[in-house]
Amino acid sequence: MSVSTPNGVHRHAATLDRPGERTLREEIRTEVARLLGERQLLEPGAEDEVRIRTLIHDRVAGYQRRAAATNAPLLLEPDAVEQRLFDGLLRLGILQPLMDDPAIEEVICNGPHRIFAIQDGRKRLVSDLYFEDDDELRQLIKRLLGPAGRRLDESSPMVDARLPDGSRLNAAIPPATTRWCCVTIRKFLLRAHALEELVQLGTLTESAAQFLEAGVQAGVNILVSGPTGAGKTTLLNALGASIASVDERIVTVEEVAELQLERQLPDCVALQARAGNVEGAGEVRIRDLVRNALRMRPTRIVVGEVRGAEALDMLLAMNTGHEGSLTTIHGNSPRDALDRLATLAMMAEERLSGEALTRMVARTIELVLQLRFEPITGRRRVS
Questions:
Q1: Which of 22, 149, 197, 230 could crosslink 192 through cysteines, CB 3.0-4.6 Å?
Q2: Lowest-confidence range among 11-25, 225-239, 292-306?
């Protein structure tokens, strides 16, 4: 498998030394768990990582010495084995080269033996990477879910989580799937933090960026529409970053935190939803967060994406003194986006009529930005 490094050089992932790695992996995991404890292994510190690397190096060197003394097969690429063992303990295992490749946007596992990478909107099979079995894939996902406080088992067979690097993980196992553990990891790629950077990427023209900046500062309610992977979150973040006044207080609401406005703006609070346990306890819905945001004295609310009844709360917020609020929605055209927004608002228990919601949408949304993905060039543009 060829992957590109950040400096543009292509390298090949090493052929897996399966038998030797399997033996070393189990020995090292047992020893590391004994030294650090299972909980510390989920969230190791910098010193722990150094200790683990040293331990792995010593154990691999010992394996090579024993193999040479007994005429057993040596590990073909011990340095690569050391890195994979480290990745398997603390990172994403065999998927780590794909995660390290800045050109790859998503990684998909349809069971242990079919791994796909999506780059510039195009999907390809990575034929020389595979897990030994479904259990190895499941164990990796369960380890990744640990720090997020999420679980994946038969009583809770589907899960969404945010990884420490901001990537978004979705996993499902039987009975939600028919056979295998299926995993999708959408890497967090905020390609631009400001409108001028989107101009450099070709997403916006210079005049469009100036127009949008003026609109944001004037308090225009904006809806960003587009298909999956079109760059809605990136555009939303760039719009939010244009809120220049220190008098503004912004509250962002997301299912999985991706926006960076809390770091970019002087007064911004980020709220994140949470799934409930198998009994439904502990759930924090987007709608609950939008309602809570209204009590936090915001001047504007930014909702990462409206997918359900929270659309009504977003519309009400925009109509009640929170002008200049922003959100995104899945839509293939501005008209589709507005129709979908009204339809989602109808899902709320308030049961407003379609006619009333259509009028509310017409009065509230002042600008719709439609994003499109161009498969041939891999570019994302505001059309």
A1: 197
A2: 11-25
pLDDT of residue 8: 39
Question: How are beta strands 122-125 and 115-119 bridged, if at all?
Answer: antiparallel
Regarding whether 342 and 212 lie in a shared domain, the answer is: yes
Shared domain check, 297 and 162: no
Range of the domain at 150: 92-189
Confidence of residue 3 (pLDDT cuts 50, 70, 90): very low
Q: What is the CATH number of the domain that holds 307?
A: 3.40.50.300
Q: Which contacts (CB < 8 Å, 24+ apart) does range 166-169 have?
A: 166/190, 166/257, 166/258, 167/99, 168/256, 168/258, 169/141, 169/144, 169/145
pLDDT tens readout for residues 355-369 = 999 999 999 999 999
Phi, psi of 183 (to 5 degrees): -130, 140
* Over residues 217-229, mean pLDDT: 94
| Contact call for residues 224 and 239 (beta carbons, < 8 A) | yes
The reply to whether 3 falls in a domain is no
Instruction: Show the CA angle centred on residue 326, arms to residues 370 and 368, nearest 5°.
Output: 25
Domain stops at, among 65, 90, 115:
90
